[in-house]
Amino acid sequence: MKLLRWFALLLRIVLFALLLLFAAKNTELVTLHFFLDQSWQMPLVLLALLFFAVGAGVGVLACLASLFRQRREILALKRQLTAGTSSTGAHNASATSLPAGQPPIDGVV
Question: Helices in 1-109 by DSSP H: which ranges?
Answer without folding.
Answer: 2-25, 44-96
